[in-house]
Design a protein that fits this description.
Blueprint: E1 2-4, E2 10-12, E3 15-17, H1 19-30, E4 37-42, H2 48-60, E5 65-68, H3 71-74
Parallel strand pairs: 1-4, 4-5
Antiparallel strand pairs: 1-2, 2-3
Helix pairs in contact: 1-2
Amino acid sequence: MIIIAKDKSIKLNSEDVLEKNLEERLKKVFSTRAERVVFVKGDPDLEFQYVARAIDIAKGAGIDKVGLMTPKMEQGQ
């Protein structure tokens, strides 16, 4: 999961990562996985452009499916 905080900092699977390194990290993480799916969660106060950029980076890294994690999804609804 890619998490983008209100301060625009990024975590990939709870590991801090700079935006400029995100594509390479995603390629490395998903290099051995058959299913290439990642979820993106942005802080509710964050402008959507930062979430969209993370989605673009994931697509550029060869991720087949990118989903958005919403508060309702987190609650299991």
